[in-house]
Amino acid sequence: MTDIRRTSPRPTLVLAVLFAGAFVMGCAEMLVVGLIDLIAVDLSVSVPAAGALVTANALGLAIGGPLLTFLTTRFDRRRVLLATMVVFVLANLLPAFGSDYSIFLAARVVIGAAQGLFIAAAMVMATTIVPPERAGRAMAVVITGFASASALGLPLGTLLGQAVGWRGSFTAVVAVALALLVIAVRVLPSVPTPRESGAVGQARFAFAPRVIAVLGLAALIFVAIQSAVTYLVPFLAGVTDVSGSAVGAYLLAYGVATTVGSFVGGRFADASATRALVVGATGVTVSLVVLFSFGGSPLVVAIAVFGIGLFGMATGPSLQHRVVSLAGPGAPLAASLPASAVNAGIAGGAFAGGVAIDLSGIPAAVLTGAVVAAISIAVAWATGFLKPAAVAAPEPVAIQ
Predict the structure, then answer these.
(1) What is the pLDDT along the chain (400 residues), one digit of tens a residue?
(2) 101 in Cβ contact with 279 (< 8 Å)
(3) Which of 64, 186, 232, 399 sits at a 20 to 30 Å CA gap from 257?
């Protein structure tokens, strides 16, 4: 048996392809947000109905991702990644070339499921081709790809859509994804799943209570973040007295912060994922408290928004690292679960913030997030004591 880390000739190039794949998929996910008004008009639906396209993608990722990962457990990760990219291209051809609303909605579920499967397979490949002490940084490469889609891909795709139409943006996504698929065929190495690692056996470890606890922490952190960030624009207008084009600067600051946070978070995950989660949860809490307390100061608000994005996304690699580590032999399946937990947190945060606003006004959404974030600090500290189950060390993975 030959260790894949020794036989993979270009790990940096492999990680670059995984980053690019995550970036393109993240762009496809976020495009609807930036072009929602154009989509609503062109498809003759309401804005809330167009918003359901975002929900469909999230549900596909949260539910379909783990399900597809379970069903493809025994397949080589290279084959899974390539197949996922093919499905992604085909599904995005539908909105690019004239599908109606119902078909677009169904396509978004498929796209989300493909994205969830890509995340899981990419995480396994990324951590397989690097030494164990660099696993967190390898995971951060994939996570940063998705974060960069919000900071860079979303505004660029929105500008393109406004210039050539929203279908033109999806056509561009398809073109880039096709080019990347050709490169991936040449670059991605074979990463077979050990024969003794069956889907049911993996599920026993992937859904162990210790793993569920960390997934719960992931959901809590993103409930806290999204309770405030979902309603950031009305908060800026009603509390900070910032509107118009100036709002874009705050959104850009948040996007840049998430990209920086996810990138540097990998190094902290390698150093101590448990400590990084406590620090990240604390940073999110302090940032939300500052946002609530000094919402009338544009400068302080900008710093707080940057802090939310920075500390929030910095927890991403550590959450992934802890879940995979605690899952042990169930790591290939467990790799898909943090994304599901995060999406559940995003949905829950948007709901909780909306309820708080209905009860007490816009600032209440930020206060709700701060309370949940404070709870997440205690949970992060408690999960630091969890240890993976003792299992026999597997043999090194061989390239076929």
Answers:
(1) 344 444 455 888 999 999 999 999 988 887 877 777 788 888 888 877 887 787 788 888 888 888 898 888 888 889 999 999 999 999 999 988 877 899 999 999 999 999 989 988 998 898 888 888 888 888 888 888 888 887 777 677 777 887 888 898 899 999 999 999 999 999 999 888 766 556 676 778 888 899 999 999 999 999 999 888 878 878 888 899 987 778 778 878 888 898 899 888 888 888 889 999 999 999 999 999 999 999 999 999 999 999 999 999 999 889 988 998 898 888 778 887 888 888 788 878 878 888 888 888 889 999 999 999 999 999 999 999 998 866 544 444 443 4
(2) no
(3) 64
Do 241 and 184 belong to one domain? no
Range of the domain at 210: 196-388
Q: CATH no. for residue 309? A: 1.20.1250.20
213/320 same-domain check:
yes
